[in-house]
Specification:
Length: 476
Amino acid sequence: MAEQLWGGRFSKSTDEMINDFQASIDFDKRMYNEDIAGSIAHATMLAKAGIISEADKDVIVAGLKDIYKKIEAGNFSFEVALEDIHMNIEKRLTDAIGEAGGRLHTARSRNDQVALDTHMYIRRETVEVQKLILDMQAALVETAEKYSDVIMPGYTHLQRAQPILFAHHMMAYFSMLKRDFDRFAGVYQRCDIMPLGAGALAGTTFPIDRQFVAQQLNFENIYSNSLDAVSDRDYIMEFLSAASILMIHLSRLSEETILWCSREFSFIELDDAHCTGSSMMPQKKNPDVSELVRGKTGRVMGHLMAMMTTVKGLPLAYNKDLQEDKEGIFDTIDTVKFSLAVYARILRGMKVRSEVTTRAVTEDFSNATDLADYLVKKGLPFRQAHAVSGKAVHYCIEQNKWLQDMTMDEFKALSPLFEEDILVAIAPETCVKNRNSYGGTSYGQVDMQLKLAKEIMAAEGAAVSANAAKQAKVNE
């Protein structure tokens, strides 16, 4: 069994079951890159401050880089007895380079070390999530432009309400994802605060240079309170919150995708490569991916609730409970990244059945509001016009016809204000074209939304590239 690096005070080895229970190496080993980068920066600072020698620093840095290469090549064995990624790396370093390795942890605690690793890891993954949001937004814009003239029913209460452009519907999700992108930008800011140097909770007696380490690791800010530095998990809760809202958006899109590709709607057809079949029923083409994204949303939301429940009753500063932040955030990152990547593919492979959506808006009463608006423009108060339109719908239902099937005599019987142009006014194309208020579904407004979307994506892309460059510099 590996010797614990903290075992000096103890007269017995840790019970093997306790080791297994408290170990986090099975999941936190994914932070090896951040742990090694943080240790290299820390060792470099210790030498700069005269706390360790330049020779020791050089040996430590070379040893850490060698460990990094071994992990990358799959030639590093992690030991559960050493609990976590931090102790595994430090023990292997000390075994490899001797006494110099024991000096690396000077002026540092696992408390501020794990906080540093987690900040750096989530900061890096936040950029990756933003990249995928950007690609998903691009897929929505591409789909909207591809089907820019397709008219479909808009719904409230899942009842047909008014005709809208399919592109307008896609751009609604673009707007949601814009807010998601901005939320993750806020997460990045809260990740971009360096906790290293806080020690276990009270700082250190050594003359460390936290600003130097922050510069080495490209942190914009440094925690000004050591207790807060090691106990803060706000940025994790914020990531989980932003991820939950994002997944809710994808779940809503999933629900509509599932409905739209059903036989009852038949508005879209998903690519065969993005669906699965049935082991019993040969005719089936199931939107399993959309169903999985919808299902995984609850899982991500559960991680948020678990994290908030864990933190809510903790006294300052560090408590072992905080180890529970890792599995939920790691699973959330994996789930969100998969969901975004797969949905961009689904959108790009999806076909919209315009003949079905066109039939849907001609064989319903979604133009009833436009009938009322027509009368209002002729001088009738809206409430009276609303009543006339309602009577027209009631009459058509009794006669088994649609509004556009009514004769002029039938229109005139309801109001003398109706003229021959009423049929043009309630045509689906007119209903869409006339909704030209800012943010509406008209062709011109949707074109404007698409233009704005491209400007937004350009700005988002620049922000992502800048932050990605910062991460690349840290990992050099």
